[in-house]
Amino acid sequence: MTYNSYVSALESSVDLVTSGYVSHVDTAEEDGTSNDADDLDDDDDSDQDVDIDPVFDEESKGVQLFSGLLCCFGLLFLPIRIPLPLDVCEFFVLGAALQNNLADVQIDISIVERLIAEVERSHRHKEEVILSYEKKLTELSAKIKKVEAERDKFVMEAESKKTDKKIREEYERKLADMRSEFRKLQMVQKEHARMQVCNIIASVVVYHLQARQERERQELVRYQSELKELKRVKVDLMKKIKEEMKRAQQEHRENVKRLAFMDKEARRRENTIRQLENKDRQREQFMKRTSEEIRRLRKAQKEQAKQVHPSATSRMAPHRVMPLRSARTPFIKGQAPPEVAFSPKQAKMKWSFIERKVLYCDSSLLITV
Q1: Is 322 left (phi over 0), alpha (psi -120 to 50) or beta?
Q2: Can you give the chain as a three-state secondary structure string?
Q3: Which of 1, 52, 76, 103 is the most buried (most CB within 10 A)?
Q4: What total of structural domains would you count in the chain?
Q5: Strand, helix or coil at 263?
Q6: Which residues of the chain fall below pLDDT 50?
Q7: Per-residue pLDDT tens for 63-105?
Q8: pTM > 0.70
């Protein structure tokens, strides 16, 4: 349904309601306000000559105000599609849409508030006018009844005394004036009844507008709270991302330091292994030289034992033990070295010295490892 069709439907419904209400008021007033119903029915043709320009002015103002209210009502009741939040990642688009919708709704709210104030002011004015016209109607109806009573009294007196017809004509003229004024007031009352119906409908419309305005305010508050919550979530996520980045950078630096330390330790261990291998190789070479020297000494001892007489060697062995270093004699270069006497004690001491040295080398290697 378009906007024009919506407004036309509302206006037609208002006309139907007001016409029914006015017809009901007409029947009620014609049945109980005057004692001379036949005279009022005969003078219906003279109603068109009544001056009702003020009534039409009031009607045009009321219709203009009511049409403006209906236009605003139709504009506000047009469907406003507000996008709902679907995911946290879309809160930027949602925030922009909410801000635009917030501006539009605030403009509509200000317009509706002005219209509501104008309707309330006109409603108060109409109630005052209705009260004044009702007061005048009651006074006129009382005057009409009083004049009719006087007329009936004078008619009875005239019939009894056969007075002049001028008195009757004068009273008839007064009654006609009062009836015309009474009809004017009835028309004004009808118009005010119609405006009262319009005011009732307008009050219903205003009530619906206020309810819609309250719902929209609640939705705006909810959307604003959701937007604040999304902003807070965004800030928390940014903080968490920064903390994760800092933690990752710290872990990266620690890993780099750990890798550098491990490389350094690996190089140190490789150097230690090479040093141990060199020491092991030196020890093996030393042991090899030592074993060769021991074999050479044993071989020399055996040869010397063969050369010496067994009895002499058996006598000299326990008493004379000369050290190998002291048994050496200086010799001239180019001459053969003199034969050195073998000493078992000296060989045993030398062997124990070699063993201690080997044990010392092993313990030093273990300590370094």
Answers
A1: beta
A2: CCHHHHHHHHHHHHHHHHHHHHHHHHHHHHHHCCCCHHHHHHCHHHHHHCCCHHHHHHHHHHHHHHHHHHHHHHHHHCCCCCCCCCCHHHHHHHHHHHHHHHHHHHHHHHHHHHHHHHHHHHHHHHHHHHHHHHHHHHHHHHHHHHHHHHHHHHHHHHHHHCCCCHHHHHHHHHHHHHHHHHHHHHHHHHHHHHHHHHHHHHHHHHHHHHHHHHHHHHHHHHHHHHHHHHHHHHHHHHHHHHHHHHHHHHHHHHHHHHHHHHHHHHHHHHHHHHHHHHHHHHHHHHHHHHHHHHHHHHHHHHHHHHHCCHHHHHHHHHHCCCCHHHHCCCCCCCCCCCCCCCCHHHHHHHHHHHHHHHHHHHHHHHHHC
A3: 76
A4: 1
A5: helix
A6: 1-3, 6-7, 9-10, 13-14, 16-18, 20-67, 69-86, 311-339
A7: 444 445 444 444 444 434 444 444 555 656 666 677 777 777 7
A8: no
- Domain membership of residue 21 (yes or no) is yes
Alpha-carbon span 135 to 337, nearest angstrom: 168
Range of the domain at 121: 3-245
Structure tokens at 291: 């074993």
Residue type, position 297, single letter: L
Residue 207 belongs to some domain of the structure: yes
296 occurs within a structural domain: no
Q: For residue 291, tell me if it sits in a domain.
A: no
Q: In 3D, which of 352, 350, 335 has the Cα closest to residue 301?
A: 350
